[in-house]
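Input chain follows. Return structure tokens only.
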Amino acid sequence: MTKRYTSFWKGCRNCFAAFDEVEVTPAFKKLKFKDRLNLAFGLSLSDGLLRLDLKSKLTPEELVEVFSQYKDRKKYIRLKNGSFLNPASQDLEKLALLAKNLDLTAKDFSKEQLEMPAYRALYVDQLLKEQEMGEIERYDHFQQLLADFDQKEAPLKLPTGLEKILRPYQKDRDCLDEPAGPAWLWRDSGG
């Protein structure tokens, strides 16, 4: 929470605590404050595009409004249902960081599904994991892409033509899988 926002409400509580009984209007009783957006993401690949689904309890229009108010550094953000969203909310800060890193604008949040080039898939996945953005659902093709990148390379076999040329320490199996050994040479030459 911002310092003013927090100090205002603490000050109100302290003032009210000095009295035995405090009467407030029904409108004041209805004020609700939120600190979380409850974000969820879906990641999928199709037609060479990464599709990022952003799910929230807010409508896309509300999300655009919240994001634009956040960028304008408003002291508080009032939602359509009358509740207030804390502008220092961690969810909102993480969403702003995601938008900055992916070059997203407020208008991009009006879409239910964001599309970007597939080469950004690993970056987006890592960014969402690091920021602990909420629930992340990875669909089939996306999971397959991650699995393909996580697979270890198969151990290399020594080409028959090189057995006579290489020295014993170059034939050492430990040396074959290290970047300092000849394995990198065989991978690059198609051997």
